[in-house]
Amino acid sequence: MILKQIRISRHLSQEQLAQISGLNVRTIQRIESGQNASLESLKCLAAALEVDVATLNQETFSMDKDSGNWHELPLWLKCWFFLNFLSVRTTRGVATRIRTVSHVSGFILCALGFVSEPALAGGLIMLANGYLFSLLTWQGDKYGIWYDGHEAKAQG
């Protein structure tokens, strides 16, 4: 069930979803851990998340590039993601890994900047790249265009 992936993509905590749906937090925890949910619980969650009950019953979530979300995006945003990921099938996990590597290497290079001026310049460039991918991750979450939901499951 993809409840957790949808909840995370909407930037909701379990407590917030419980309040919106009228369900108990423990019920949401059980459903997210893979236990069966009653039809009534699924209907409450579907209404709160504005999705179909069938969508909640899916095992994985993938962004269909033929769907309205992708087609409704402005051309500049599609190009932004394509050029930065060099892929039409963008995943959140890739953005997170690039952001992490950029920040870590940027901080290390900035520390080496005390010894070498070019290292400082490289560190600043890597930090800027890390913040660029933070922005890309935020936009990907906002517009819901991640191709594969498996990455969100590993992070949640």
Structural write-up:
- The protein is mainly α and 156 residues long.
- Helices cover 69% and strands 0% of the residues.
- The chain is elongated.
Intertermini distance: 14 Å
Oligomer kind: single chain
Low-confidence residue ranges: 60-64, 149-156
Give the integer mean of the pLDDT values: 79
From the spread of the alpha carbons, the general shape counts as elongated
Give Rg in angstroms: 19 Å
What's the tally of helices? 10
Ordered list of secondary-structure elements with their pairings:
Blueprint: H1 3-9, H2 14-21, H3 25-32, H4 39-49, H5 53-56, H6 68-72, H7 75-85, H8 92-112, H9 117-143, H10 150-155
Helix pairs in contact: 2-3, 8-9
Short summary:
With 156 residues, the protein is an all-alpha fold. The chain folds into two domains: 3-56, 434 Repressor (Amino-terminal Domain) (Orthogonal Bundle), CATH 1.10.260.40; 68-155, no CATH class.
